[in-house]
Amino acid sequence: MYDVEKRGNVPIYEYLYKCIRNDIVSGRIRNGEKLLSKRRLARQEGVALITVENAYEQLLVEGYIESRERSGYYVSFDAGRFVMSDYSDDSSRSSNGNIYLNHRSANNSIGNIKTDNTSSKANNTNSKANNTNSKANITNSNNNISGVIERDIPQVPDIADFVSQRLFDDAFPFDIWSKLMRKVLSDRNPECLAPPDPCGLPVLRYAIAGYLMRSRGIDADPDNIIVGPGTEYLENILLILSGGGALTAVEDPGYKKMGLLCERAGHKCLHIPVDRDGLDVSVLEGTSVRLVNISPSHHFPTGVVMSAGRRAQLVDWAEREDAYIAEDDYDSEFRFSGRPIPPIAAAYPERVIYMNTFTRTLAPSIRIAFMVLPDKLMDRYRQKLSFYSGTVSSFEQLVLAEFINGGYYERHLSRMRNYYGKRRESIMRLFESKEKGSINRNDTKEKYDDTKETHDNTHADRSYIQKQKENSETGIFVPIKDVAGLRIVLKAPDSLDDEKFIKALSDKGIKLSCINDYCYSHNSQYDHHFLVSFGAASEADFAKALPLMEKAAMECM
């Protein structure tokens, strides 16, 4: 195990990343060895799952490990060829940021790569790697290795996964999708085999433009739409268009990968707090920010809807500063009550980049996202990035275009809203029944019904803070009512030890995250607030997990 208590002021994910990296570089974890699953490592170290995810993500980005589908993570760095020179310390970096390597089989120094044949120097490097890092307090002992390599360790069976971003498998329209796949193949469309258009196939871009007009009121020019394999890819394009070293703003709490992407692209990142009205626009005043990333219709992870006043304030700032707003319309499809929240892009297309993905509503394996660029940014894209190759399979694009143009996608969304809206109500009743000391098992029996349309009611939307204050139910966990998204926020008593509670649940096979996991620095406002995803967790999972959660909470207060 790695002693996270010795990390000093270094974030836990960075500490884990450096410990594992140093063990890989020193050869103690060998090339090709399998690492522990993220869940098992999180449980072993007593940290949140997202902490391990961030550590593994960084190792993945830097090429130390690789992800193998349905298998796990494996070391992909051969320490037999390269040994880092004192890599556990920042002193191993040259003035231009490069990392020096020792190549054991070479005889000459080439560029920034130092060569070394002597075992004494290699051993010296390993001994340095074993020492405690003075800046990050990183300890590498041979005992740590069993803490990260996959071994024959008894596993705690999963009882409930309240972190997963997946949807229920039976919610996917397999029959329709397979029918459209056969149609695309039988049509023998030449585009199916041709290299994909860098911006996406025209037929899909036109289909997306039509859908946006019908569902979100956005008059999008199909020629301004860019299709990519995910929002991270599209965000990278925006960062390039913003210019190197520019200051970019992100929500805090929020989708932390955005902050990581900014930093990796050489951008300075400004973390802006989110309050009851959404992003605090006043923080932008007087800064050199030229791109701000927001999710105004349903903020992740709090569920806050950005107020109209804040939206107007944000657009006014963007126009004055010649800046752009990247609007991620996250979870807008899963709104279960009232009218849809209109996107900012519908009213201000020249200042707002609209972004969304089909991954959230179809399946994580369908990696198709898109953004709509303002005219000026689209011109800049054609000038700077027209050499980019298409990144999404033409075949998948053609199938999705058929799915949208045939009206299947909107009917699918209607069924999904109906299905998950009922499931949300059932789960909320389950919590309320549990607080009263009994559970109505009939409330947990919901079926995916593809014949019913979305129900509606007149509950007004409330901000996150208002929802919390208006929940006066008594009980260990108080669900904070919301009308959108596939997550429920639970408020626990102030006396709860959050970290101890998360670890106790992990030991019982229950995956759970807290809102502070998505903050760039700890925010006491979100202490004792837990995020429960029900996209792939059944009512039966909740019924089974709730007593264990309550017991664990009582033990951690």
Automatic annotation (TrEMBL):
GO terms, molecular function: DNA binding; DNA-binding transcription factor activity; pyridoxal phosphate binding
Signal peptide positions on this chain: none
Keyword Coiled coil on entry: no
Keyword tags: DNA-binding, Pyridoxal phosphate, Transcription, Transcription regulation
Pfam family, one: Aminotran_1_2
Spans annotated as Disordered: 110-138
Cross-referenced InterPro entries: Aminotransferase_I/II_large, HTH_trans_reg/aminotransferase, PyrdxlP-dep_Trfase, PyrdxlP-dep_Trfase_major, Tscrpt_reg_HTH_GntR, WH-like_DNA-bd_sf, WH_DNA-bd_sf
Segments forming domain HTH gntR-type: 10-78
Domain of life: Bacteria
Low complexity compositional bias, start-end: 117-138
SUPFAM superfamilies: PLP-dependent transferases, Winged helix' DNA-binding domain
Record has Transcription regulation as a keyword: yes
Family of the protein in this entry: In the C-terminal section; belongs to the class-I pyridoxal-phosphate-dependent aminotransferase family.
Cross-referenced PANTHER family: HTH-TYPE TRANSCRIPTIONAL REGULATORY PROTEIN GABR (PTHR46577:SF1)
Protein name in UniProt: HTH gntR-type domain-containing protein
